[in-house]
Amino acid sequence: MPAPRATRLAIRAPLLSYGGNPFEADPAACVRYESDGLVLAADGRITYAGPFAAALVPVEAELHEYRDAVLTPGFIDAHVHYAQTPVIGGCGKQLLEWLETYVFPIEQRYENVEFSREIARLFFAQELAAGVTTTVSYCTVHPASVDAYFEEAARLGLRAGAGKVLMDRNAPATLCDTAQRGYDESKRLIARWHGYDRLFYAVTPRFAPTSTPAQLEAAGALFAESNGVYMQTHLAETRAEVEWVRALFPHSEDYLDVYDRAGLLGPRSLFGHAIHLSPRQWDRLRQGGAAVVHCPTSNLFLGSGLFDLRRALSAGNPVRTALGSDIGAGTSFSPLVTLNEAYKVAALRGETLAAHAAFYLATLGSARALYMEDRIGRLAPGYDADFAVLDLTANVLLRERLRFADSLEETLYVLMMLGDQSCIRATYAAGRLVHDRDNPGA
Ligand code: GUN
Ligand code: ZN
Questions:
Q1: What is the pLDDT at residue 375?
Q2: Of all protein residues, whose CA lies closest to atom 1 belonging to ligand 1?
Q3: How many whole angstroms from 132 Cα to the centroid of ligand 1?
Q4: pLDDT of 140-154, one tens digit each?
Q5: What is the pLDDT of residue 314?
Q6: What is the average pLDDT across 312-326?
Q7: Same structural domain for residues 104 and 194?
Q8: Ligand 1 in contact with 142 (CB < 6 A)?
Q9: Are residues 281 and 392 in the same domain?
Q10: 62 lies in the same domain as 191
Q11: 51 and 152 share a domain?
C-alpha cells in the first residue's frame, strides 16, 4: 500500500536549489538561495518555494522551522546495491575478486524473503538518514528481493527504482537464471511494480561478463517493449574487466558496443562507473541520450580508477551524469561524503569540483540523468515534496568552522568536506517527515 500523503506541510528554513547547470553556466546564475525561505506542500507536491511570509502559511498547515540549516531537494542515489548493505566495508580486493569474496555469497541469502525484507528496511533507513529520497538499486537474481525493496519503498512513499539482477554465466549456479527465465521474471516484476505510486523498474543485466549474448538480447528486447522502464548495468569500471569483456565479445568494437548491439543503450539507460572509456564511447553515450553514474567512494575503495567528470559534463558535449553510492563497494550512504570523494577524484586529475557543481550533481543533475528533472531535484511548485535538511551545527568543528565561512559557496564546501549523515537533521518524502534525527522513534 502506498504511504498516505501528508495533506499540508510548511517548512521555514534557508532554501538551496539549482535552476541551471553550474558545469555549463555561471554558477551564480544557476543557484537559487533564499536565506529566510518557506516551502509549502500539499498532497506530496510543492505548492510554494520562496521567501518566508507568515501570511502565506495556511492555518491548517503544520509549520516546521529549521535555523542554522539548509534545506535542499532530497538527494538522489542513482547506483546502489541494497542487497550489499551487509558487506559494506569488506576490504582488501579489487573488483572481480571482491565480487567473488563478498558479493556472491551474500546475494545468495536473498532467496529468503524475510532476510530480503530485513535488509530492505535497514537500507532505506540508512538512505533516509543520509538525506536520500530517490534510489535506483540493483536487487539480486531472486524476484522476492525486488518485491521486498519495492514494498518498503512504497510503505515509505519514496520515489525508487530497481530491478532483478540478470546473470547466466560466470557466477555461482544459485545466482544464475537463463535468458528466458530472466526475461519472464523481469516482465512479471515490471507488470507488478512499474508505475505503481512513485516506483519504476530498471531492467538489470549485472554487467557484460555475467550475461551471455542471448541474455543481453533478451534484456534489450524487454527494455524496448516496456514503456518507460529503465536499464541499468556496469560499464568499464576496471581495466581487468575491460580486458575480460574484450575476450568474451571479440566482435564488438568496445565495451559500450556490447550493450549497444543488444539494444541496451538509449534514454533511461544508466551505466555505472564508466571510467575507462574511449572518446568514441563518450560520444556514443551522449548521442544515445544515455546516462553515466559517478560512484567515487567505490572507485577509490576498489582502486578502480578516476572518473572523468570534466569530460562527462563538458560544456557543449555533456553526457547526462548522476551520482551514486554504489553500496556495498561504496563506503558511505551519505551524498556529502560521496561528494567529498568526488572532489578528491577530480583533484587527482588536476581539476576542481566547485561546491555548487557538487550540490547540483547530487540533486538536479542526477534528476536530469534520470529524465526526471520536471519532478525531482528542485524546490519549485509542482515538484515532489522531497527534502533534506542539513544542520550547520551538527558538531562543534562544523559549527565553529562555519563561523569563518563568508560565502554560501564556502559553507557548502565545508559541509561536503566535514559533513556526513549526522548532518541530516530531517528528511521529507512526498511531504511527510520520514527521518527525524533528534526524535528517531517519532
Ligand atoms: N560490477 C559487476 N557487479 C558489480 C557490483 O556488484 N559492484 C560493483 N562495484 N561493480 C560491479
Ligand atoms: Zn554497482
A1: 98
A2: 234
A3: 21
A4: 999 999 999 999 999
A5: 80
A6: 92
A7: yes
A8: no
A9: no
A10: no
A11: no
